[in-house]
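Pipeline run #58 for the internal structure catalog. This entry was flagged by the ingest filter as a single-chain record with no existing model, so it goes straight to prediction. Upstream metadata was stripped on purpose; only the residue string is passed forward. Reviewer on rotation: M.T. Logging verbosity set to normal.
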Amino acid sequence: MNNKNVVLLIATLSAFLAPFIGSSINIALPSIGREFAMDAILLSWVPTAYLLAIAVFLIPFGRIADIHGRKKIFTYGILIYTIATILSAISTSATMLIAFRILHGIGGAMIFGTGVAILTSVFPVGERGKALGITVAAVYIGLSLGPVLGGLLTQHFGWRSIFWASVPLSLIIIAAIFWKLKGEWAEAKGEKFDLIGSIIYSLALIALIYGLSLLPEIAGIWTILIGILGILAFIWWEKKTKSPVLNIKLFEDNAVFTFSNLAALISYSATFAVAFLLSLYLQYTKGLSPQNAGLILLSMPVVQAIFSPLAGRLSDRIEPRILASVGMGLTTIGLVLFTFLDQNTAIVFILVSLVIIGFGFALFSSPNMNAIMSSVEKRFYGVASATLATMRSIGMMLSMGIAMVIFAVFIGRVEITPEYYPVFVRSLKVAFVIFAALCFGGIFASLARGKTR
């Protein structure tokens, strides 16, 4: 097997691994909540802690990899990820599990910040699209299989089996790196790493998300304000430093890059918590088993996996702005349908709404990525892909943050037991109203990017 195919195999397996664990854990959340007697807000920290760690470390590790070697950082990342998986499986308290999910996120950031960049370094322009398409398909297959296999494993072997089941795949990736992966990639060797910028950026993001979890208390508002000031301080520092961790000029001089990233941020903010909220709704309110809830949630990523490659190919011929904006419109319709959710909603209605969101997201995602990557010079490919991945992570966190705030306001810090089901359903409706409004606004961000060619 030549080095290109080894890189493709490693990138594809690692692209599958993280979404698989993430979507499996969503299905297992009620079981985890029962075992550790976690309230709704604490329970939402199980996925959020992981996403926060990824968002905080993604850009700094992407830059460290450019300077010191992508293979080196990728290897450390998969080792940390594997250790965190084993530690998560043997957690004995909610605090331990959340701490190990943070470690998971650090490993994940090292993998995501380097996997696609190594792939881009190895495959020439004519073959790159196909290779990236295979890894994107692996992400959606991970998202598709997660709820089904996660539901099966949780129901028959308990939630810890999800972590144990993914360890062999991590070990295969590690073996392939050490035995088969040749060479190193460090295009920015010798350049300085912006430690101060990275610290400001990390602390600002942590303040923003932690602040969201404290709302509606006044401390939450102050913490969010500190986070916003931190982001402004980060932008100021990046503009004046010689070797920035994130090149702000990309945003200032490039409307397509700026608005495409903004559209990605809004899209993930409006859609990521859908699977989390529906997993709880289907198991608590509808009384479905984890396995059956997983089968219903499967509909959205399956539609995404089928239509994303087609949408990507179409975006080479049709203006990405038009395809992505139509996709966002369809996603808005799907989210509006979920605002009618109540305790008696038919499963068919939920399935149809999920399929509409999945199709809309497929039409949006690939063309939007194409627009971002086509709007920058080759030397900025690494920064561009890390920026998009960061927008995705921050969007996912904001989505979970909105869900946390709504739970805090409506339910408070209690376990979701039958007497809280009516108020739980009311909180879901409010969440979907907010998500639909966000997504509607995102259509205008998508249209505002202008033409890419």
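catalog note: The mean pLDDT is 86.
catalog note: The chain has three domains: 1-180, 194-244, 247-453.
status: ready for reviewer M.T.
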